[in-house]
């Protein structure tokens, strides 16, 4: 029996929180930019911290599990 919850949550968050894909925090000259497909080192750091926070809450605090047979 495999636990696919952490894998699916990690992949979905990785895609959604890729800097520049949907949004970029901080943007160039603005706080938030949407769909610009550019990134910076600071944006990567901010998105990494957001990713870590959300995945920690979902996997450890809430405990999402998807079991398959």
From TrEMBL:
The chain crosses the membrane at residues 6-23, 44-66. It comes from the Eukaryota. InterPro entries: DUF3339. Coiled coil: none annotated. It holds the Pfam family DUF3339. Keywords: Membrane, Transmembrane, Transmembrane helix. PANTHER family: OS05G0103400 PROTEIN (PTHR33128), TRANSMEMBRANE PROTEIN (PTHR33128:SF42). This is Transmembrane protein. It comes from Daucus carota subsp. sativus.
């Amino acid at each position: 029996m495999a636990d696919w919850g952490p894998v699916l949550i990690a992949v979905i968050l990785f895609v959604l929180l890729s800097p520049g894909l949907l949004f970029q925090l901080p943007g160039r000259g603005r706080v938030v930019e949407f769909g610009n497909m550019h990134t910076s080192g600071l944006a990567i750091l901010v998105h990494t911290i957001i990713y870590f926070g959300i995945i920690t809450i979902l996997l450890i605090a809430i405990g999402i599990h998807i079991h398959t047979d």
